[in-house]
Each structure stands twice: as structure tokens, then as C-alpha cells.
Design brief:
alpha+beta, six-stranded antiparallel beta sheet, elongated, about 150 residues, 11 strands, about 30% strand
């Protein structure tokens, strides 16, 4: 092979390598950077899907894991705030590569509970719909985080 072709292939390889390393560093930085003090900016503030019923549902008191390898069957009481993620400081620690270090939170607002995505990479889903802003959580609602599904209960 001519020497010019080999030099071009070397440069292309180096460029691809730098792009790969740059994207890897960017992904790690996004996971490790501290959460902002304010709420994340909503890109699509559409309300979460709600089942159409004549009567209003009541606020939940617990969340139960109904799908997930290690946490299935566990129940967690809702207090003022419940942080969900892979980090040890979270109240619900999930060992799932699709879950961010600090992925989502469930918090009280008055007599109601809200679920909020904390800027995760793969998103938080309420009743099969991705949430982009804090959404009200009611009994029977399902929250999907990574491969785990939580159900709000009384």
C-alpha cells in the first residue's frame, strides 16, 4: 500500500479515537455533575396521562416495586421526599445501568405527591408517558425508571 494511504488511515483513526474519548468524557461528566438548585427546565410541559374516571383518585402513601430484578416485592413509605437512583445516598438504590446516579424523586406538595425526573439520561415514565416536568402521582399510577416499575399504593 502506498505510504500516503497509510498516513490518511492513521489520521482518520486518530480523529475517530478522539471523538470516542470526547463523547465518553462528556457522558461521565453529565452523570457526575451536581444537580442544579432549581427544577429542570421542562421541554414539553404536557400533563401526564391519567385514566379517565368519574371519581378522583386519592394520594398514595407507599410505592411498591412490581417489576425489577432485585427490588421486586419491596414497598417504600412516602415521606417528604424519596430519591431514586444508583447512588448510595438515594432512598431507593437501583442496580441498573439504565438508571442515573440521581434519577428521579417523589416528593410531597401539600396533600399530594409529585414525581419528577432529575435530568436523567433515559427518562422517567408515568403511566407509560415520559415526564418532563413534576407530575402528580395518584394511587394506581405506575412509574418506570430503567427496568424497574413502581406502583403507587395506599
Amino acid at each position: 500500500m502506498p505510504e500516503l494511504v497509510l498516513d490518511i488511515l492513521k489520521f482518520i483513526f486518530i480523529i475517530v479515537l478522539y471523538i470516542f474519548v470526547g463523547r465518553a468524557v462528556r457522558a461521565v461528566w453529565a452523570e457526575l455533575k451536581p444537580a442544579t438548585s432549581g427544577a429542570p427546565v421542562a421541554r414539553n410541559p404536557a400533563p401526564a396521562a391519567r385514566p379517565k374516571e368519574g371519581r378522583a383518585k386519592k394520594a398514595p402513601r407507599k410505592v411498591a416495586v412490581i417489576e425489577g430484578e432485585k427490588l421486586k416485592g419491596k414497598t417504600f413509605n412516602l415521606g417528604d421526599e424519596l430519591i431514586i437512583g444508583r447512588a448510595d445516598k438515594c432512598h431507593i438504590v437501583m442496580d441498573d445501568t439504565y438508571v442515573s446516579q440521581v434519577h428521579a424523586r417523589i416528593f410531597s406538595r401539600g396533600d399530594n405527591y409529585m414525581v419528577e425526573d432529575l435530568g436523567s439520561t433515559n427518562g422517567t415514565y408515568l403511566n407509560r408517558r415520559r415526564i418532563t416536568a413534576p407530575s402528580e402521582l395518584q394511587r394506581g399510577d405506575r412509574v418506570k425508571i430503567g427496568k424497574t416499575v413502581l406502583e403507587a399504593r395506599r
